[in-house]
Write a structure and sequence with these properties.
The structure is a single chain. This protein has 469 residues and is mainly beta. The protein folds into 4 domains: 121 residues; 104 residues, Sandwich (Immunoglobulin-like), CATH 2.60.40.10; 106 residues, Immunoglobulin-like (Sandwich); 85 residues, Immunoglobulin-like, CATH 2.60.40.10. The chain has a 5-stranded mixed beta sheet with strand order 24-19-29-26-27, with no helix packed on it. A hairpin with a 2-residue loop joins strand 3 and strand 4. The protein is rod-shaped and about 170 Å long. The N and C termini lie far apart (185 Å). The model has no long low-confidence stretch (mean pLDDT 85).
Amino acid sequence: MSNKGFTLIDVLVGTALILIVFLGIFGAYQLALKTISQSKARITATAIVNQRMEIIKNLPYKKIGNNPKLADGPEGEIFQTEIISQNYIEYTITTEIRYVADCFDGPQSGECPTAPLIDDCVKDYKRVKITVAWSRPFQGQLSMTTDISPNSLNQELEECTGAAAGVLAVSVFDALGQAIVSPLIEILDPSDETVLTTYQPVSGEHNFVFSPDAYKVKITNPGAGSSYSSTMTYQAGDVYDGKIIAEPAKSHPLVYESRLTEIGFSIDKLSSATIKTQGTAGQGYPIIGNVSFDMQGFKIVGNDGGGDPIYKYFQTHISNAQGEITVPDIEWDSYNFYIDSPSYELIGVELPLGTDIPQPIDVLPNTTQEINLILKAENTLLIKVQDINTTDPIFGASARLFNLGLAYDEAHPTNEQGQTFFIPLEVATYDIEIQIDGYETHSGTIFVSGDTTYETNSDADIFLTPLPE
């Protein structure tokens, strides 16, 4: 007789094997269910994130921010946390919006060594991070980050000022169009000339943020090694050189909300001009002293009420007894010269002597220009004085010309060529008296009509005789 059957150990081992097989199958089934559920939840979360991103991107830039805002972020209309239900799953949406400071536009740092030294607004753009989390049927989350930039510099700067504003972009350059290094830009209130702000940009240009209004701009360069010209804007009613400006050539710029207003200015190193008043070439370019003349630049600041230009430079000058005057600190410009006198006529400008050039005369930056005004009068007298023994010209002799009937009595010294020039004169007979220490006094008369030279001999010269020692 045979006793065959399962022992308890056999049963336990078999049961364990069956459990292992079925647990593996159940685990695989459970993993498949989790994977499918997570995939569905992630697809839904991705759709939620994309939808929220599109909503945020289509908001006005100033409304992109958290409510309540983060410590380093903007205030706006986006809640930090929201809970929504999709496909029987609850999703927690967390939105974080923060400002980002990009050193590309300043301030200068090791990361951006060529950037501007400072940045008026470090809120360059906004970084949005959206996180969607869920806990059932299985826990998970998904995040997406994007940067949103302002459409214009105005939008960026409004984030810093907290008010509607516009940008006034000021650039300063020289006569060749090259940027001026560190000019002084002053922004003033046009009503009372109060200085609102100043800046000296190394690049020669700067963007100012202002509320919508008109602003006066003044440009100088006080830190330059050489003196520079200056310029500014004007408004109707301003007084320049005693004249009322009706139409400014460069008006105060207007700043508009959310718009960029650009304005440029040109300044450069100042120059000087040495101006000489002389007679004609046929007379040997004799010196004509104490001549009054007008000097007028080409640049204007505007027009007056009659439509006539108001010139930036218009001055009356008088040459000295030696027939010259140095006019310092003049701006590079083109200049015209006028003689407002019935006694003289300006017949030309020579630069240098012997080379006639048409007006206006160009004066370049950082130069010293010599300008010769050639004058003519209806009646003149040229006197030449020489030593009778050596025929050398006598310098510093006093030549007196007088006519008591005409109430005319003037004395001029002779120059290094022994010459002196009387201009203008009337047609008449004049007495002449010439004297200098060490020589006999010379007296005579001369009838002056047209361009006349005093003649006492065939050489048309006056010879003085030295006194005996």
